[in-house]
Amino acid sequence: MDPKHQRVTLNDGHSIPVLGFGTYAPDEVPKSEAGEAAKIAIDVGFRHIDTAHAYQNEEEVGLAIRSKIADGTVKREDVFCTTKLWCTFFRPELVRKGLEQSLRKLQLDYVDLYLMHYPIAMKPGEEMFPTDEHGKTISDTVDICATWEAMEKCKDAGLAKSIGVSNFNHKQLEKILNKPGLKYKPVCNQVECHPYLNQSKLLDFCKSKDIVLVAYSALGSSRDPKWVDQSSPVLLEDPVIGALAKKHKQSPALIALRYQLQRGVVVLAKSFIEREIKENIKVFGFQLSSEDMKALDGLNQNLRYCPAHLFSPFLSDKDTSNSPVVVGGEPFL
């Protein structure tokens, strides 16, 4: 089945392709590789491309999209492009500036989806991770509801077709949903999600609110040593996933991706290897049984590949408070 026709309707009436191509890569990977991989992804049938200001590859991803439009492979309306508002742009007066900066890099007139990247504001400025003299990240006092109102204005201005959030837990979502004068609900919540962290409670909550869950690190992450505990198990080497791959004559990656689709989750597949990109698009060619799905559900261990390292600087080494930073469904310190 042609993947570009596999879409789900969002709560604002727009639709999103259920299979997306993720473009994050560790710092040591040249940014040009994201662009080359995105071109391959579009060539083989991906129509949903996910990037972010924080990935520092919007220029390369935008060039890939425009090159595929220029050579006639796609039209602009065929490509669903997502980017994200970084935490240093959360002050309401900076939100549109952040989006306009991303649009200039992408060289696009609009993005199809704009997300608040994390539910935590940082000090505005040029630094991606502003820190004080002790190396502690400098937060900013901004109400996420005020940031959301500015996101709504970006949608009204036509700079973003849809707006949503990323790495929010249900309480943070509820804060926006219960905001007086709410004009637009978040259309989605993009979080880490895979068989070892299946986010079942958050998924149920999002479904109850007509919010789509989008899964990143669906294949177990790129295992960037800067963020990921190298002793953590490798998802795609799990014996249960391996047995299902053998049973269905598919790769372990396709089993992990198919699992999400059958749960009603929009899933991002990230690989810069041409063979794997071509393989991942085949996720629509088979079906997992209810027994298969139950076996995969049983793998959940609330294991996070992308845990607190990103925001641990917000907490001092001697912080003994009982108020954990909570991101993307589960509390962590």
UniProtKB/TrEMBL annotation:
Query: Do the record's keywords include Oxidoreductase?
Result: yes
Site (Lowers pKa of active site Tyr) found at 84
Gene Ontology terms, MF aspect = oxidoreductase activity
- Keywords on record: NADP, Oxidoreductase
**InterPro entries annotated for this entry?**
AKR, AKR1C, Aldo/ket_reductase_CS, NAD(P)_OxRdtase_dom_sf, NADP_OxRdtase_dom
Q: What range(s) does the NADP-dependent oxidoreductase domain occupy?
A: 19-300
**Magnesium among the record's keywords?**
no
Binding-site residues, substrate: 117
**Residues at the catalytic site:** 55 (proton donor)
Report the sequence similarity comment from the record. Belongs to the aldo/keto reductase family.
UniProt cross-references to PANTHER family, sorted A to Z: ALDO/KETO REDUCTASE (PTHR11732)
Q: What is this protein called?
A: NADP-dependent oxidoreductase domain-containing protein
Which organism encodes this protein? Oryctolagus cuniculus
